[in-house]
Amino acid sequence: MRKKLFIISTTLLLMLLIACGDDDDELHILEVDFNVPETADVGEMIELEAIVTYGDESVTDADEVVFEVWEKNDRDNSDMIDAVNHEDGTYTTEITFDDDGIFEMYAHTTARDMHTMPKKEIVVGEGGEYDEDDEETVFHTEGFELYFSELDEAQVEQEIDLDVQIEIDEEPLEEANVRYEIWHDAMGDDREWVDATERTAGEYTAPYTFTNATTYYVQIHVEDDADLHEHAQYEIDVID
After folding, report:
1. pLDDT for res 84
2. What pLDDT score does 149 carry?
3. Contact between residue 50 and residue 107 where contact means Cβ atoms under 8 Å apart
4. Which is deepest, 19, 91, 115, 236, by most CB within 10 Å?
5. Matching CATH topology for 32-124 and 134-239?
6. What is the pLDDT of residue 11?
């Protein structure tokens, strides 16, 4: 079986999907506090809530807030649900689950010329058992595949390569814009971005050094000139 590696590699350039304040040099980022219950009963109505801010400002006019929901390991059959804008910085929808299982979801959020998509998980009813060889190793949807290595841990202050291999219809995706979004703070206040370089056809890499012993979140953004915009997210435990 062909082994395709990749995941963690990153040198973070301070998130410059940010803008400066009018009167000072403070940097602002688009932040989404995604509120989802940890558990729910089958058939129970629950609320998904995204609280969107830009610096100290509540974002009342986001271009898009869409909740994507799928059962674990089955993102190919995800549902996209438009949020209701309450015009106070909060965006919500109500949803029920008809079966036991573990369900995952993104809050796709676009505003201020930025895009972010925090991810959450909910256990419904008795939950379920799933193969571990899922999106943590391979992310795929409608011909798009992204492969990365299973790196459970990284060492503080040790430079590593974050590598990802991307295919479209089983062919390498070349000349794409691939960026790593990296943070460890729960609110994403330390969020950084780093651009990857295409090393070989469809394989993108960036060196990165983790500076804290904690759990980091790494989200891979992939775009091209054909309006492709895909994401995959995973976690890395960084140790002393």
Report:
1. 97
2. 61
3. yes
4. 91
5. yes
6. 30
Domain ranges of the chain: 32-124, 134-239
In CATH, the number for domain 32-124 is 2.60.40.10
Report the distance separating Cα 121 and Cα 154, nearest Å. 24
Long-range contacts of 83-86 (CB under 8 A, 24+ apart): 83/48, 83/50, 83/107, 85/60, 85/61
For residues 219 and 201, the answer to whether their CB atoms sit within 8 Å is no
**10-residue mean pLDDT series, the chain (240 residues):** 33 35 54 93 97 93 94 85 97 97 90 81 91 54 72 81 85 91 79 90 90 89 85 83
Q: Assess contact for 52 and 61: CB atoms under 8 A.
A: no
Q: Which CATH class is domain 134-239?
A: mainly beta
